[in-house]
Design goal:
The structure is a homodimer of 313-residue chains. The first copy, chain A, has 313 residues and is of the alpha/beta class. Chain A has a domain of 82 residues: Winged helix-like DNA-binding domain superfamily/Winged helix DNA-binding domain (Arc Repressor Mutant, subunit A, Orthogonal Bundle), CATH 1.10.10.10. Helix content of chain A is 43%, strand content 22%. The interface between A and B is medium-sized, with 24 and 24 residues. The structure holds a DNA duplex (30 and 30 nucleotides).
Amino acid sequence: MTITQLQYVLAVAEHKNFTLAAEKCFVTQPTLSMQIQKIEEELNILIFDRSKKPIQLTDIGQKIVNQAKNIVNEADRIKDIVEQQKGFIGGEFRLGIIPTIMPTLLPMFLNNFIKKYPKVKLLIEELNTDEIIVKLKNGHLNAAIAATPLEDEKIKEIVLYFEPFVAYIPEHHSSFQKEEIEVSDLNINEILLLQDGHCFRDGILNLCKNGTDIEQNNFQIQSGSFETLIKLADEGLGTTLLPYLHTMDLKDSDKLKLRNFKEPKPAREVSLIYPKSELKMQIIDALRSTIAGVVKGAIVFQNVQIISPLQKK
Amino acid sequence: MTITQLQYVLAVAEHKNFTLAAEKCFVTQPTLSMQIQKIEEELNILIFDRSKKPIQLTDIGQKIVNQAKNIVNEADRIKDIVEQQKGFIGGEFRLGIIPTIMPTLLPMFLNNFIKKYPKVKLLIEELNTDEIIVKLKNGHLNAAIAATPLEDEKIKEIVLYFEPFVAYIPEHHSSFQKEEIEVSDLNINEILLLQDGHCFRDGILNLCKNGTDIEQNNFQIQSGSFETLIKLADEGLGTTLLPYLHTMDLKDSDKLKLRNFKEPKPAREVSLIYPKSELKMQIIDALRSTIAGVVKGAIVFQNVQIISPLQKK
DNA sequence: ATTTTTGCATCACAAAATACTATCAAAATG
DNA sequence: CATTTTGATAGTATTTTGTGATGCAAAAAT
C-alpha cells in the first residue's frame, strides 16, 4: 500500500470516474485502474462497486476512503513542516471569499500581501459560505474569509474583525430624520435583501426576527449586489443594510443617507477559516497578519453585538 | 515519499543505527541508506545528523519523525479496518501485564481466550507500568493490563474490575483480633512492601500517606513477590497488603490471617489500556469481554475507594 | 601506533513496481 | 443498430527498490 495508491482511490471516490480521476492525477487511466486493483487485491476487498453507474463506493470502501483522507492529509503536512522550518512562504494557496466581503476587503490587503510574500501564488475564488465549507473539507480550498461563527466541527476560525451593519435610509423615509437608529425601527418587510444563499441576508433575517415576524406579504426584491439595493432604495422601494466597509466608497451624496445603529451595534464577525488539518499554516498566518494590519486602520473597534450568519430553520 | 520510506526513517530514529534498523525492516543496510537519502533529498533537508555517534535526529528530523509516526499509524489502521469489517479476529497481539496482576488474572482468562479466538497469537510480557507506557506509545505493545487511572493523554483505559486490598495480619499483631480493619490501623512503617517500580507499592504509599507521614527509621524490606512478604509477615516482621485475587489461593491457615477493610474498601482499579491510535480494536474488545466474563464470578462488587497507582512526587 | 571493528556510503546489477500505448468489451447513448 | 463512453487487459518501457560486494572514515581494541 502506497500513498500514491491512496491518492488514486481518493480521486476515483471524488470523481466517480476512472478516466477523469486519472487525468486529475496526471496519469493514464490504465495506470490508475491497475493501482486501484492492486490495493484492492492487497487488502483483499472491493473498494468500488463498478457495476453501478456512476461508480459507487462499497461500504468498506467508504471507510477506507475516510481513512485514506487522513493519511494523505497527514502526509501532505510533512512537506508543510519542512517549509515552515525553512521559513519558506510560497507555493499555491487557494483562498475562498464570500461575495459580500470580496469587493471591499480584497483590494485592501491584496497588494500588501503579494508584495510581502511574492512567492505565494494566491488563487482567489468568490464562493458563498456553503460552497466554501464543502471545498475546505474536500481540500479544494486552503482557507477562506467568511462571516462567522459557523459552528462547524471540522473548521477552525480566526476572527479578523467585526464589521457593523449600517442602515441606508432614503430621504423620504420616516427614519431619515433620526441620527441613530435601532433594530426596532426596522421593518423586515421593507428591507431590501440580497439573494438567497448570501449569509449577509441570513444575518439580517436573524437580526430582525428578534422583534417582529416576517410577513410574506407585499413585495420582496432580492439582488446579488449592494449597488442594486442602494439604487432600489433611492427609488423609494425600501431601506437596506450595508456592511460598514461597503459604505466607505459611497458617493458623498449617498453617505448622507447612512445611519448608524445605537450601541451595541449589530455587526458581523469576519474570520479567516481553514480546515482542521491545518495545512499551509504559515501562509494562513501571513494572511491573518496582513489583513489585521490593513483593517486596524479602517475599522474602529466599537461596542458591537454579533449576528449569526447561519440560516435558522 | 512513500510509507515504506517513513517506516525506514522511524526504524533508524528508534535504533539510532542504520544496520540494526535495516535488520528490523528486513532489508539490507544499503537499501535503507538509499531510501533515507531519497526522502532527505526529496524534502531537501537532513533528517539525521550522521556526524554524531550514535546518530542523532536533527531538529527538523524530530518533527518529521513525529509526523511520520502519525502517518504510519494511520496507514496501519487501514488493514485494521478491513479486518474488522471482515469480522476477522486474529494475528499477532502483544499484551503487557504488570507483575502484581499477571499470576492471578492471566490463568483465569488465558484458556478461555485462546479457545474462543484461536487465530490470535497472544504475545504476553510481564512489565511494570512505566515500561508498559513506553512500549504502548512506541508501538511495541498493542495493549496492556495495569492499575489505573494513569492520567496519560495518549493512552486510553477500559476499566476491567476493582480489586480491593486485603490486609494480612500475623497472629501476634495487635490488629489480629479485629474482624475488619481501617486505614488508620495501618502503620506505614511496619507494612512490608514490594520493590520500587511496582505500582502496587505506590498505591499503598498513597493510601497510607493520608494519615501519617512516612518515617524513614527502623527497617524496610522490599520484595518482588507477595509470597516473600507473607513469609516475612509470618516471621513477625510486620504486616502486608495483598490484592484480593491473590488471597484466593492462599493456604487455609494463611487465610485466617486476612482482614478485610471497612467499607469503602481501598481498592485498585484494573484496566485494559491501549494507545490512542486504536489499532486492533477487535482484539482489544475480545480481551475485554473475555476478562469481564471470568472476573464477574470472582469479584463481587463492593463499595470501594480507588487508590491511585501513580507515584506522587 | 597499528590493527580491527563498526557503521554508513557507493557501485553495479537484478527484481519488482509503475507507467505508458494500444486494444478490447460492455454498457450507455442516440 | 451504430456510436460513444468507460473500465479492463496485454505487452512493453521506465523507474524504483532491492541486493551483494566494496570502500572508507571513525572509533575501539590490542
